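Quick review question:
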């Protein structure tokens, strides 16, 4: 069966991460963690090349997994993510406890994180694919979404 239809393919990931919101007026100003869920959806046409071991695939799920793990999950899993304006002294003095601290250029909200993750993933996708959307779930009832159609 040969098709020219665009198909969306989604792979889901989970990771643990802590953050604090610098200058926030609520309890999220304190260091706290979440079990994040990240759903990555790409869009493209299934491979119609024969013979090819990837025949019929938009992308091999293993390839998508490698990209997202390399560029997002392995970096942020079990990390403490803070705005770069957060005073650094305490974390340097307590390197044993804070070995995996990431200082980012933005306030580490779900909204900003999902945008950052989209850019990291987009740059690594094969040229025949497009990133369609990301959903970053911070809690069981809260998530932020990024759609390419909203950002092109």
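Suggested answer, residue by residue:
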């Amino acid at each position: 069966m040969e098709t020219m239809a665009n198909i969306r393919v989604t792979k889901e990931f989970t990771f643990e991460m802590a953050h604090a919101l610098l200058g926030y007026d609520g309890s999220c100003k304190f260091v706290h963690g979440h079990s994040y869920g990240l759903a990555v959806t790409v869009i493209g046409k299934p491979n119609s090349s024969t013979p090819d071991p990837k025949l019929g695939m938009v992308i091999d799920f293993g390839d998508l997994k490698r990209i997202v793990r390399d560029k997002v999950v392995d970096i942020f899993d079990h990390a403490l993510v803070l705005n770069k304006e957060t005073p650094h002294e305490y974390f340097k003095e307590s390197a044993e406890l804070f070995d995996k601290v990431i200082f980012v250029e933005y306030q580490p909200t779900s909204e900003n994180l999902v945008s950052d993750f989209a850019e990291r993933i987009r740059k690594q996708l094969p040229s025949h694919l497009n990133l369609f959307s990301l959903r970053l779930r911070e809690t069981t009832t809260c998530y932020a979404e990024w759609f390419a159609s909203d950002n092109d």
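Why it works: The longest helix spans residues 61-76. Residues 7-150 form a domain with the Tetrahydropterin Synthase; Chain A fold (CATH 3.30.479.10).
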